Structure formats: structure tokens, C-alpha cells
Amino acid sequence: MNTQVQEVFEKYPQASRDNLIPILQDIQEKEGFISQESIIEIGRFLNLATSKIFGVATFYNQFRFQPVGKYHVQVCRGTACHVLGSATVLEELEKTIKTKAGQTSKDGMFSIEVVACIGACGLAPVICVNGNFHAKVSKESIRKIIENYRNQQ
Questions:
Q1: Is the pTM value of this prediction over 0.90?
Q2: Is the pLDDT of residue 14 over 90?
């Protein structure tokens, strides 16, 4: 069994179905995504069919089933960001990184995720890279932001 998954299970001494979502959240936090192997291990731990676990996990858009890049870029598409040009920002981001939303770049450096709202409407349009917010981003600033992350190698 994966040691990170085992560590998560140790936090839940009673294997209860009520703990499914917190377990999924904890595993994703530790591993960066929910793997097929993790779903199987959760099924054994909670005595649940993997199809039920996958059904719950896919219902919530917070869960990822593919590894993310070293720099995970979330692009806000909430109302304020949309009105202020987040579609253009996303388009430029995809060109700059050379990957599409929902994917990870071939070099594993960047992944792009479109989110409904980041909650920073007064700073729109906004992107978030590994928890760091970038406000009032534009087509031009996207290139600089990504270049700065590339240079941190």
C-alpha cells in the first residue's frame, strides 16, 4: 500500500463511509491528484465499490485524476473575471505554456485549470499559481508571469 495513502487512513481510525470526501481531499493534498490505485485502496479501507468512490469523486470538480504540473495555474472564469477578459488571458496562457486547459505541459512544468470563481473579484481578472494570486492579469502580463516561473528552475 502507498505510504501516503496509509498515512491518510491512520487519521480515520473508524473506516466510515462518512469519511470518503475528507479522505479523497487528504489524498489529493498529499499526492496532487487521485490515482486509480488510491481509489482501489480507499475501496478496500471503506469496504466500498470503486465505482461508487469514482462516482462521488467525479461529482465534485475539486478532485483531479491526473497529476498536475510543478506550477498549477488556475484561471478564474467567474463573472467579474469573464467581463474583464479572462477568456483572452486563458487563450494567451495556453499559447505561452503550449498546453490546453485541463492538461499538463509535456515537460511537466505547468498545468492549467479553469475554475468558476477564485473569490478575488475586485482584482479581476485573476490567476492563481500554486496558491499565489496574480491580479489584473492581461495578455501581456501572462507572458511575464510564466517566464518568471520558468526562471525559478
A1: no
A2: no
